[in-house]
Amino acid sequence: MRYLTAGESHGKQLTTIVEGVPAHLQLTKEDINESLIRRQGGHGRGRRMKIEKDLVEITSGVRHGYTLGSPISLIITNDDFKHWKQIMDEEPIESDEEIKRQISKPRPGHADLNGGLKYDHRDMRNVLERSSARETAARVAAGAVAKKILKEIGVDVVGYVKRIYDVEADDQPSMTFNDKVEMSNLSPVRTLDSTKEKAMMDAIDQAKKDGDSIGGVVEVCVEGMPSGIGSHVHYDRKLDGRIAGSVISINAFKGVEFGIGFEAAERRGSETHDEIYYNSTDGYKRKSNRLGGFEGGMTTGMPIIVKGVMKPIPTLYKPLQSVDIETKEPFEASIERSDSCAVPAASVVMEHIVAWEVAQAILDQFTSDTINQLKDEMKRYRERIREF
Ligand SMILES: Cc1cc2nc3c(=O)[nH]c(=O)nc-3n(C[C@H](O)[C@H](O)[C@H](O)COP(=O)(O)O)c2cc1C
Ligand SMILES: C=C(O[C@@H]1CC(C(=O)O)=C[C@@H](OP(=O)(O)O)[C@H]1O)C(=O)O
Any known ligand binding at 71? Predict the structure, then answer.
C-alpha cells in the first residue's frame, strides 16, 4: 500500500491517492471526515481553521460503500482559495502588482530559504505553499483509510497530547486504552485532569499574548498488534524505523522515542528489557513494556507506544530576525495570522501517520487483495504464533 499527496496550502484543493487498499473494505466519506474534523480542533489554532471546513470527496476507488481494490482518490477543498485566487493562479503573471506581492523575506524555522535556494525560487511563496502543514490534512485522510483496515483485524490506534510546554498530562500506569481514546477527543485540549487542561490552555494563551508560540509532546498507542510485524532482515523493513522516519516527517516534529526512549541511557539493562513469559491462552507475553512494543524492528505483541516532540510554531507575532534576499538587508518578519500552538491538532496527525505505517507493514506481510483474505491470514498467523 502506498500514497501520494498533492496540493498547495492556498491552492484549490488537496489530493491524496491511496493505492493497494484491499477490495471489499467498507469505506465511506464519514469515516474520513471524522478524522479530518478532529485534526482541525484544539486550542491555539489561528484564524485559518475558522475558514476551512475539511470534508472529503471520494472520487475513485470506492463504489456503493466498498473499496474496489483500485486506487482511491480523496479530495479536500481549500475554502480559503477564494481569497487567494489571484495569488495562486496557474496563469502567467501579468501585472507589476503581482510581482510586488512576491515573497523575498524567508521566515526562520520554515522551509522558505532552503527551498528557495534549492529550487531557485526567488518568490518563496512557491516553497511555503507546499511546505505548509496544510498538507497534513491529506495525510490524515490516507491514515483514516489505514485505520479502517486496522479496525477489521482488531488493531486500534489513538493519539493524544502528552505535554504542552511545561504542563505534562497525567501519566497514570492504570490508564486504559479507553482513557487514551477519551484524551484524543480534543475539546479543545483533553487530558484526564481538568486542572491540567486549564494549565495547558493558559500556557497557550500566555504564549499568544506574548507574541510567542509553544510546542509539546504527542503520544500514540497501537493496541492489538501480534508479535513479528516488521522485519529484522533489512534496515528499511524495520517497522520502528519506518514509524520514526514518518513521525519526523510531520511538520515541526523534531524527535521521536519508543517506550522509555531516551531514559534508557540512564538505566541498567535489568531495568530496561521486557521479560518473556508464556501461557497457552495468550501465547508469549511480556511482564513490562518499557521498549514500547519493539525488538529487532518487529512488534513484540505489546502495545506500540511512541512519542513525538513538536517544536514551537516558527511564525511569531514577536518577529525573528532574517534577511531580505532582494536587498540582502536584515528585517524583522511580521505576520498576519498563525497558530500559536498546534500540538493538539498534531496528535491527530501523528495518530494517522503511525496508523498508516502499521497498516502498510501488515499489508506487506500478508496476502491482502481482499479484506477477507487479510482477515483470514491474520487469524491463522495469530493462532500459529500462540502455539509456537
Ligand atoms: C498541524 C500543524 C499546524 C501548523 N501550523 C503552523 C502555523 O500556523 N504557523 C507556522 O509558522 N507553522 C505551523 N506549523 C509548523 C510548520 O509547518 C513547520 O514548522 C514548517 O513547515 C517547517 O518544517 P520543520 O519545522 O519540520 O522544519 C504547523 C505544523 C503542524 C503539524
Ligand atoms: C492550514 C493549516 O495549517 C496552516 C499551517 C501553517 C504552516 O505554516 O504550516 C500555517 C497556517 O496557515 P495560514 O498561513 O494559511 O494561516 C496554518 O493555518 C491546516 O492545518 O489545515
Answer: no
- Note the CATH number of domain 2-387: 3.60.150.10
Which residues lie below 8 Å from residue 130, measured CB to CB, with a gap of 6+?
A: 8, 9
Can you give 23-48 as a three-state secondary structure string?
A: ECCECCHHHHHHHHHHHCCCCCCCCH
The reported pTM is 0.97
- Out of 39, 76, 84, 132, give the residue to mutate to test ligand 2, the one with the largest number of ligand atoms within 8 Å of its CB: 132
Q: Which atom of ligand 2 is nearest to the CA of 46?
A: 18
- Cβ–ligand 1 contact at 315 (below 6 Å): yes
Q: What does the domain layout of the chain look like in residue ranges?
A: 2-387
Whose C-alpha lies nearest to ligand 1, atom 27? Answer: 252
Residue with cell 536584515: 330
How many residues belong to the chain? 388
**Distance between CA atoms of 339 and 347, rounded to whole angstroms?**
15
Q: Which helix (H) or strand (E) holds 245?
A: helix 239-248
Nearest to 1 by CA among 269, 341, 276, 365: 365
Q: What is the distance in A from the centroid of ligand 2 to the CA of 352?
A: 18
Q: For a substitution probing ligand 1, which of 313, 318, 351, 353 has the most ligand atoms within 8 Å of its CB? A: 313
Q: Cα separation of 128 and 131, whole Å?
A: 5
Q: 31: Cβ–Cβ under 8 A, 6 or more apart, which residues? A: 144, 145, 148
- Ligand positioned closest to the Cα atom of 48: 2
pLDDT tens-place values along the chain, 388 residues long: 999 999 999 999 999 999 999 999 999 999 999 999 999 989 999 999 999 999 999 999 999 999 999 999 999 999 999 999 989 988 887 777 777 788 999 999 999 999 999 999 999 999 999 999 999 999 999 999 999 999 999 999 999 999 999 999 977 777 899 888 888 887 777 877 888 899 999 999 999 999 999 999 999 999 999 999 999 999 999 999 999 999 999 999 999 999 999 999 999 999 999 999 999 999 999 999 999 999 999 999 999 999 999 999 999 988 899 999 999 999 987 677 889 999 999 999 999 999 999 999 999 999 999 999 999 999 999 999 999 9
Check if the interface score ipTM surpasses 0.95.
Answer: yes
